[in-house]
Amino acid sequence: MSTVVARAPAKVNVHLAVGPLRQDGFHELRTVYLAVSLLDTVTAAPGDGLTLTVTGEGTGGRGADLVPTDRRNLVWRAAELLAVSAGVSPDATLAIDKSIPAAAGLAGGSADAAAALVALDALWGTGASRADLLALAAQLGSDVPFSLVGGVALGAGRGEQVTPVLAGTRTDWVLGIAGEGLSTPAVYGELDRLRAAGQVPGGADPAAADPVLAALRSGPPAALAAAMSNDLQAPALALRPGLGRALRAATEAGAVAALVSGSGPTVAALADDERHASRMAAELAGTGVFRTVATVHGPVPGARLAS
Ligand code: C5P
């Protein structure tokens, strides 16, 4: 096999209920993941040892710290993990082309890792089963299994236990990236602090995912809007007060609803349809509130080889 290309999507947590902090430092959660049409590309070619290059969205300047080209990059660790588990030598020339902004609450790093697993499985002919890849993905990060699965899925445990869900309806969104990246552990830590201080309620109701799933199956957007929620929104807002302005801008631009994606700082603004999303994106791009504005739709498939 010469060169292999794989792509993987960004995600939005349409519902994110965060439970208590566990002994292992993670929070128990129930989430509804939606894979959206913003894709990173990983190219794997034969090599001598591992090399990694990164191009695209946010990789220049300060981005160089957010998307490293060594073992700190999840793609590097994915390659090492797959090589060890398959008993092959970790030889590959890897290139990531990013469209998904880093540290934005969109699981861009997880998407890259999932795409790398799929690409390297093909390059090395390791013949890993879906279950093998999912187990490796779970070791790499809480969101990596979902990046493999894509579509719509219920996430449990620390997020790594994914159950695919049939989703009937297409949903259209505008993603607005507000300011610099936010650290996921910092946002979870701020939630614990706010809860300890009694400033936000604790322990979310796991059953609250049901209306979200029903709305994703049959619509309309207003039903989804009424059901969406994210426990990490309050701590993200506490750490980044400007996010409040970004959410307001999305609502004022006509979003059916707007919420922070994952640990932020991306604002996901739900649209009625594709045309509405385009109009909203043009308006939001003109506000100066967002660093990047993109229209996307979901659900889309998880990591897979490019045809
Ligand atoms: O699994 P991942 O590497 O994406 O997690 C990054 C960090 O986010 C963890 O080290 C933890 O601080 C926090 N986290 C959490 N509970 C989760 C997932 C992530 O506290 N369910």
Set down the secondary structure blueprint.
Layout: E1 4-21, E2 27-45, E3 50-56, H1 63-66, H2 74-86, E4 92-98, H3 108-124, H4 130-140, H5 144-149, E5 152-156, E6 161-165, E7 171-177, H6 184-196, H7 209-218, H8 221-227, E8 229-230, H9 233-239, H10 242-252, E9 257-260, E10 266-271, H11 274-285, E11 292-298, E12 304-305
What descriptive keywords fit this protein?
single chain, 307 residues, alpha+beta, Ribosomal Protein S5, domain 2, 2 domains, 36% helix, globular, binds cytidine-5'-monophosphate
Describe the structure.
- With 307 residues, the protein is α+β, with helices and mostly antiparallel strands.
- It has two domains: 4-166, 2-Layer Sandwich (Ribosomal Protein S5, domain 2), CATH 3.30.230.10; 171-298, 2-Layer Sandwich (Alpha-Beta Plaits).
- Helices cover 36% and strands 29% of the residues.
- The protein has eleven helices and twelve strands.
- The strands form two sheets. Strands 1, 2, 3, 4, 5, 6, 8 and 12 form an eight-stranded mixed sheet that branches.
- It is globular and about 55 Å long.
- The two termini are 15 Å apart.
- The protein binds cytidine-5'-monophosphate.
- Cytidine-5'-monophosphate is lined by residues 25-27, 29, 141-143, 158-159, 184-185, 188.
